[in-house]
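Justification of resources, computational component.

The compute hours requested in this renewal are based largely on the per-chain cost of generating structure records like the one below. Each record pairs the submitted sequence with a full structure-token output. That output is archived, and it is also reused by downstream analysis tasks.
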Amino acid sequence: MGNSMEVVATETAPEVEEEAKAKVVAVARRVNSSSNSPNMVKVNSRDKEKGSTSKQKQQQQQQPQAQPPSEPAGGSQQYGDFLQKMQQQQQQVAQPAPAPAQAQAEPPKQAQGQQQKGGGGGGKYKQKQQQKQQEQQELEKQLAAQRPQQPPAAASAAQSRSTASPEGSLSPTHGAIQRVEEDLSGMKIDKGSGKSALRQVLIRPGAHGRRGKVTKLEVNYIPLMLEKMVSTAYHYDVDIQPMASRKWQRAAFKRFEVEALAGQPIAFDGNKNAYTAKKLKLDHYKKEVVAREDNRDRKFTITMKEAAVFRKSIYVVPTKPEDIGANHELWYGLFQSALLGSKPFLNIDVSHKAFPRGGPVLDVVASLNRNSLPTTLAGWLAQQVHDYLKGMEVVYTGPNGVGKTFKYNSLKGPASTQKFKLEDGSESTVAAYFQKQGVRLRFPDLPVMHVGSTIRNIMVPMELCAIPPGQALIKKHPDQCTQMIIRRSATDTVTRKGKIMDIFNQIDYNNCKTIKDFGFGVGNSFEVVDGRIIGPPSVVYRNNVTITPSRGQWRADNASFIQINPQPLRWRILNLDDRTRPAGIQQFGQNIFQVSRKHGIQLEPFSMQQTYYEPRDLRYAIREVDSIFEDLKKQRMDFVIVVISGMGDQYSKVKQRAELVTGLLTQCIKGDTVFKKAGDMSTINNIWLKINAKTNGTNHVLKPESKPPLIRKRVMYVGADVTHPSPEQTNIPSVVGVAASYDLEGFRYNCCYRLQNPKDEMIRDLENIIKKQLLQFKTCNGALPDLIMYYRDGVSEGQFSEILTIELNAIQSAVASTSPGVKVAVTFIVVQKRHHARFFPTRGTIEVEGRNQNLPPGTVVDKHITAPNQYQFFLISHQAVQGVAKPTKYCVLYDDVNSDPDELQSVTYALCHMFARCNRAVSYPAPTYYAHLAAFRGRVYIKDRRLNMNDLAGEYRKMQIKPEIIDGHPMFFV
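The structure output for this chain reads:
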């Protein structure tokens, strides 16, 4: 496809652009008001709350998650509180291709005898609500005496919601601008939710470093010019009855605009909110309209009344879709998010998404069956077809040749045998019904599809259905698609900037009537800012061999690990891959032994007779793994290298049995790696980096002189993360991963994992986790740490106060219960990778890296594009292997030691060089990386298990890691 893109249907393309512009209108108003008066809310409300004080309003601003009222108050509002609420908004917009028209004729239905869905689950919901209430009450009790004394936070950060539209196929004429209007619905007026006990995020203006070489760089932030913006905007609450999809709601509101509002410029979010720059003549409108979509007419009653006073990615239809396999194609789009730095900005970036390929349903069936269309469908193939179609819309074309759109539900029996009731009460098979309609089915033994309402039996043959293109689905991409997206999106900085600006220029914000009506403008070029390039730390190996990394990496070919296991190591290679031949194992094993000698490790010599083990029948070897592991444990093996297939679930089964059942230390290697890399000394060395850490060795440490004063004392580095199931994984819990250092050098870590309710971002058992880590640290070092540096991943701005309140309180409680009276300082840092800030070289850039023209590792930006009153910085710590390097954003929420920005940035950069798995700096600090691995290990343990979601604590107790592993080899998880 190249880099060319266009918005199709050019006669209606301006409507596509309208939505993007309307989004910017809404967000820019919030930014403008926040930048002028960040701590004051002015409400001109028809139903103004009585008795509200400025102090109460100030407390409302400090709440991280506004609880919108079910009935918004009336009136117009200044935008003083908008920017804080922007922190909670993350949306992503798709602008797909037009859906086929719907038919007038319907396929066979069976409405009789159907039960409505609904029963069950109420008790569980109430329990969860009660639990949340109890937790909130407990928090208020604990923190009643600890109200923050700091001044209110200046409003900052971004409004940026990032989920693709679930509405399916939309016309390109409704792509960009409507998505902007939808962002307006995300900004609710905060009436106050009673969370006054929440801690306030650290306010520290001017937290900027000075060290390093200053360089100029561009960032993909476009200035917003708000000087002429009107002072007031008007918000109207829209009610459309009966309820319908957004496609129908938009169509109905368009008629309403023409018939009731006489074409007055108005931004509608496609749901419940509309906005104007000028007050409408009436404060209440009600009208019945007839909307037309897909060749059908529907009647709606629309009520719009005055209330109290931006999805983010717009995908353009590619001229030539890129096939990325698994029946998906790649679309490019524009991400947009407004935020406040030293001035208001619009963050824009190119985005990529896999969309299901449009076409006949039978083509999907054939492609999933190795391009062969079966005559029947059952077993694994039927399941694959169902999984692919789940959540999609399909277009059924009836005997009259007119298409009608339905949502797919499930597969039913073959058309030749699946029966339904006719209107006269008699029964007919689906195939016989269509035969009477003049359509003889070609594949009567394929299953029919249940579509439309789940409480009605609307069944249609597969061969009469097609998938409309451009459906943005909220479910996990196939792994093959994810890999292809990464590969196709990996471009150099020049190409990426060109893609961004191409799509941005198509939107043409400044020619939008709505934007002009509100009186502001959008810049036309990236912002140029100052960055600094700080130096890397030096690392030390045995015999004081010191190496200074260059360009984010270093070679240690002639250096030995600083610490190894003092005892000779007994080991085996276990082959569970039926495609890996003994000849490959021979070379691989010999090289493992040779590299161990270079590092000074005492390892038993390798021999195929003594060291290698292969089950008799490799096809069923995984079934014998328990007995094999027990036998190897009896032989007192220190570690076992397990060669596994790259397909299937061998990895999870090996880890479950070895770590939860037997207590055997393993290192898994894919058979392909043995086949392709057995003679690659770099690969063999990387394997030893992991094995040495697992067997209680230390690969390298920071040179003492490289340590900033901040960490020249007892420091425990803690990383924490929560991984969540994908939307379609309804019976899988969220998994907590926490890793903490227990040596004074910050190399050795142990880990904990926990299971908790899906989508719960707060770590509920953190106090017990930290208590265990503190005891381990004290055992190894004779005292508690002086400082805990807590790097927390996976948190959005809207969750900052809640996370800080719950988790900082847990850390402090753990310290108090471990050693009453002992003071341990805490620095609480949020690590963010899910953002769209990218850095690009410009004429003033002093260094660029490699063929992708990236800024070098060590590049720091801590002002101009960061929140003006908060302690934040961006850091590129790694050399990007492919594509444009993504800087990591660090937000300091709490800091007992009032750390110097230069020192904190240097410590964070140094920790990126302490990851055991490789001799290169990684993109975020080692403790955070280890927390990811800990959470991943927890997810491995629950794979293919049926869990009682009402008793996750009990399920966790069933999956305890054996003491031989968790205590004997704390870094078993790297």
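The mean pLDDT is 81. The longest strand covers residues 328-340.
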